[in-house]
Amino acid sequence: MKFIEVMEKRHSSRDFKKDEVSEDTLREIVKIAGMSPSWENSQPWNVYIATGETLETIRETWIAENDKKIKGSADMNPGHRTNFSERGQKNMADFMDAIGKFDDDEDLENFNHVQHILFNSPAVVYLTLPKNYTKWSVYDLGGFGMGLMLAATDLGVDSIPAYELVKYPYILRDNLPIPEDEDIIMGIALGYESDEHINEYESPRLDLDEILKIN
Ligand SMILES: Cc1cc2nc3c(=O)[nH]c(=O)nc-3n(C[C@H](O)[C@H](O)[C@H](O)COP(=O)(O)O)c2cc1C
pTM, whole model, 2 decimals? Predict the structure, then answer.
């Protein structure tokens, strides 16, 4: 696939088929992501992937925790919405409004449901950093995550990066060999997207001139 096709094809899938992603494919995706640049080649990332029984145990516990309406407590706290820029807050509000209506369900019931069941995904990648990371390592990890999703797309694997996948870090630590001295920063679900309507949702982008100034 040409690079532009990979960029255009990648989008967030919010419901996956049961079909597993092979271990060879998972390894290939992470190997390609590892080509990402980082501050002085620090390569601060660690990668944990839950599949099969491990992921089913995480999913069951996750659903139970959500049913109890336990608030998320991710290692990297997103803080209040007002911590985001004014433009960011507007785009976020537009997104929540649009995806709720798109799914014919103005109260976001289905959108919330797919989050709680970890999008039905057969594999979830968790990206961690050693505690006390600098903001530069978060920058590096973001690039790594994007490389990982683009590699997945190129290999025919769909994905979604989601805060919802890391909001109960204690459940992840109970089921994966993630040491206490690493923070779980981000989760990316991988799999093959289903025919569910929600997967057709397309997030719009700002016009180029709203984000770019060339002088
Ligand atoms: C840091 C981050 C956190 C996100 N968290 C969620 C989430 O919790 N739930 C969700 O459905 N989508 C989540 N997304 C996906 C975004 O909604 C999506 O990337 C955005 O709307 C652009 O759409 P696209 O990925 O289809 O291009 C997240 C994306 C990023 C980068």
Answer: 0.97
